Amino acid sequence: MITSIEFLSEGVDLPDFDKQRIARWISAVADRYGKIVGSLNYIFCNDDKILEVNKQFLNHDYYTDIITFDYSRGKLVSGDMFISLDTVATNAESVGQPYDRELMRVVIHGVLHLCGINDKGPGEREIMEGNENMALDMFETIK
């Protein structure tokens, strides 16, 4: 199995980060859940694009930081993840976190969804946050 993690942009500049380090981190997080990374596409965009995707595919009329399309099968995690850099910046400011940390939280949030972690039901948001924090701690150990 060939791991393919692509970082794409639509209407925004691609974030300036170490793509190979992030790919190693994503694979390590997936492995922690007994999963293998297949094809992941991160599409970084602005609020206009994420709203368009949210309306078109989910019939939601609001902004969000990430929309994850899950194409996983069995242990193989695959999907497309649209991330609004505008909303990431707004959220970072509102929760008092550095932008780069909030961006990494959102990047791994999509992978956690693909690994089976949900955040919509009772108590699930806290479970997701705990898993995000664990993954962010892991990121600090990845070189």
Q: CATH top level?
A: Alpha Beta
For the record, give the distance between the C-alpha atoms at the N and C termini, rounded to a whole number. 23 Å
* Strand segment count: 4
The assigned structural class equals alpha/beta
What's this model, at a glance?
The chain has 143 residues and is α/β, with parallel strands linked by helices. Helix content is 50%, strand content 21%. The chain contains five helices and four strands; from the N terminus they run E-H-E-H-E-E-H-H-H.
Write the layout of secondary structure elements.
Layout: E1 4-9, H1 19-32, E2 36-45, H2 47-58, E3 66-70, E4 76-84, H3 85-95, H4 99-114, H5 124-141
Parallel strand pairs: 1-2, 2-4
Antiparallel strand pairs: 3-4
Textual characterization of the structure:
The chain is α/β, with parallel strands linked by helices and 143 residues long. The protein has one domain (4-141): 3-Layer(aba) Sandwich (Collagenase (Catalytic Domain)), CATH 3.40.390.30. It has helices spanning 19-32, 47-58, 85-95, 99-114, 124-141, and strands spanning 4-9, 36-45, 66-70, 76-84. The chain has a 4-stranded mixed β-sheet, sandwiched between helices. Helix 3 (85-95) crosses helix 4 and helix 4 packs across helix 5 (124-141). The radius of gyration is 14 Å and the shape is globular. The relative contact order is 0.16. The mean pLDDT is 96.
